UniProtKB/TrEMBL annotation:
It comes from the Bacteria. InterPro entries: HTH_17 (IPR041657), SinI_DNA-bd (IPR010093). This is Helix-turn-helix domain-containing protein. Coiled coil: none annotated. One of its GO terms (molecular function) is DNA binding. It comes from Salinarimonas ramus. Residues 80-124 form the Helix-turn-helix domain.
Length: 152
């Protein structure tokens, strides 16, 4: 199965309420959690406990939505096409195929097509981001040493 996504958006006229809720949830996330009181359309109230982790996750989602970003929610086990993986990674489709062919991105064959799990795409993204940060730090360190040796 290829990508069953849930799209989430907050209409512009509801963003102030969402911003306030995100702030409240952020405060709950910075402590032991909190209580959430929900009232449905009929006026029935339900109170529930939220852990700090759950409050933090909800605050993050609401904060992104308040900024006007629509969100797409996918499970980590969802499968993507190489084109979708390329979009997530911010690279071209041929680069994704190269990552598959060099065994840096696991995939499975579905007939003549390839599919990758979102969790594997995100793991590759985290690895490559870390590698880029390390390379930048190493380059900066080398530049600093070069300047120091010229000045000495």
């Amino acid at each position: 199965m290829v990508m069953s996504a849930t799209k989430i958006a907050v209409p512009p006229e509801e963003r102030d309420i969402a911003r306030e809720a995100a702030g409240l949830l952020s405060r709950a996330a910075s402590g032991p959690g909190g209580q959430l009181l929900v009232r449905d359309a009929s006026g029935t109230q339900v109170e529930m406990s939220l852990t700090a982790a759950t409050a933090g996750a909800l605050a993050t989602v609401l904060s992104r939505l308040v900024d006007g970003d629509g969100l797409v929610v996918l499970g980590e086990e969802e499968e993507l096409t190489p084109e979708q993986a390329a979009t997530v990674l911010g690279v071209s489709r041929p680069v994704v195929y190269h990552r598959m062919d060099t065994h840096r991105l696991p995939f499975r064959q579905v007939g003549t097509h390839r599919r990758v799990k979102l969790k594997d795409v995100l793991a590759l993204q985290a690895f490559e981001d870390e590698r880029r940060r390390f390379s930048r730090a190493l380059s900066k360190d080398t530049d600093d040493q070069d300047l120091a040796s010229r000045g000495a």
